Amino acid sequence: MTSPLVLILMGSESDKEVMRETTKTLDEFNVGYELHVASAHRTPDKVRKLVTEFEGQGGKVIIAGAGMAAHLAGAVAAQTTLPVIGVPIGSSPLGGLDALLSTVQMPPGIPVATVAIGVAGARNAGVLAVQMLALADRELAAKLKAQREALHRS
Ligand code: RP5
Fold it and tell me: What count of other Cβ atoms lies within 10 Å of the Cβ of residue 136?
């Protein structure tokens, strides 16, 4: 069995419904992933271990979804030079604006590629991860083109 290319982390079980859109997308492209609930503030050691192991086993892209003061994606980016995609989740009374700003406003040098709040962002995180992987995978690149053409037609 080959190691998964994408690591998906989310801050809480309650984020799973939104992040299912990411797993659905990766499944459509037949891209392998592993998924864990790991919180930057509740289980920081678990986050560090998962990221370090994933990088060590040759993983390529990390997707982190979290709500409220969503520092998960930034905390992940601090541990690795792999590309990190952040999904802000609208789980707070502020509707995700707090998570959006916490995820996107990284200081210079440690980027988090931040997508839209909620389900649209979770979908786009999956597509963006596939686009990154497709840079070195012609078959995946062809699937992306076919999917884009299908979008145009619809
Ligand atoms: C964040 O706080 C999680 O990512 C979640 O979006 C939010 C609420 O978490 P729970 O209280 O539902 O566990 O850490």
Answer: 9
